[in-house]
Amino acid sequence: MIERRPLLDLLAHAILILGVAVVAFPVYLTLVASTQSAQEIAGSRPLSLWPGSHGLQTYRLALFGGETSAGSKLAAGAPMMAVSLISALIIAIGKITISLLSAFAIVYFRFPLRKLVFWMIFVTLMLPVEVRISPTYEVVSDLGMLNSYAGLTVPLLASATATFLFRQFFLTVPDELVEAARVDGAGPMRFFIDVLLPMSVTSIAALFVIQFIYGWNQYLWPLLVTTDESMYPVVLGIKRLIAGEAYTEWNVVMATAMLAMLPPALVVIGMQKWFVKGLVDSEK
């Protein structure tokens, strides 16, 4: 018998609604500010919570750039979003590919110092970014990869976390399945492509969402390796909008921030089912 407690249900729903409101309010405030003019934002104390009438003009400036009513010249946000999108896709796909292959080699191949190699990969998780960033920048600079997609993405492709997760998953694959594939004449790569990859789809989807957002939100590394505005990602572009002019066009900043939220949000929404399943599903 299930005991019904209406008051507890009501309290739980109230807490959930309050939590959603706390999270959603800054997003709503950003959306409202992006539809107002810079003068309305600067002159209203507190900021109006109702949408304004300058949304179309503001988003056009945020996407394609141009001159504002105050005479400021703004860079186009669309190329920055393209740089962020390409970089995030390269980082996500590259991390997953390298991690799958490295975990496959560690689990299914016998070679000297195999466990030591894995622990050397795993120990890199204990090194903070600040320790690695200076030598990494020097290598990228010496190889002439500044202001390029290679410089933005190659140093970020390796992932000890993803390698560890795929290794743990591969260790749960039954030995009988490996033997059956061997009896059927499947070589290592055929076993990897036809057996392991289909079984890893949900884990790959979950990691893709995480790594795409990680690549999209990169700020510190692009700040170091890019000096050409054509290679600025959108996160760096937002910072430039705030600090680049004596008079900040806050409506354009908010519109650019809203546009920067869209691709990660669409990825999460579009892959939500696979993402959740990849995190909680224990079926093999």
Please provide a brief summary of the model.
The chain has a domain at 77-232 and 262-280: MetI-like fold (Orthogonal Bundle), CATH 1.10.3720. 71% of the residues lie in helices and 1% in strands. It has 15 helices and 2 strands.
What does this structure look like?
This protein has a two-stranded antiparallel ribbon with strand order 1-2. Helix 5 (114-123) crosses helix 8. The protein is an all-alpha fold. It is 71% helix and 1% strand. It has a domain at 77-232 and 262-280: MetI-like (MetI-like fold, Orthogonal Bundle), CATH 1.10.3720.10. The radius of gyration is 24 Å and the shape is globular.
Task: List strands and helices in order, with pairings.
Elements: H1 6-34, H2 38-43, H3 55-64, E1 66-67, E2 73-74, H4 77-108, H5 114-123, H6 129-142, H7 149-153, H8 160-171, H9 175-183, H10 188-199, H11 201-216, H12 220-225, H13 234-243, H14 250-270, H15 272-280
Antiparallel strand pairs: 1-2
Helix pairs in contact: 1-14, 3-14, 4-8, 4-11, 5-8, 11-15, 13-14
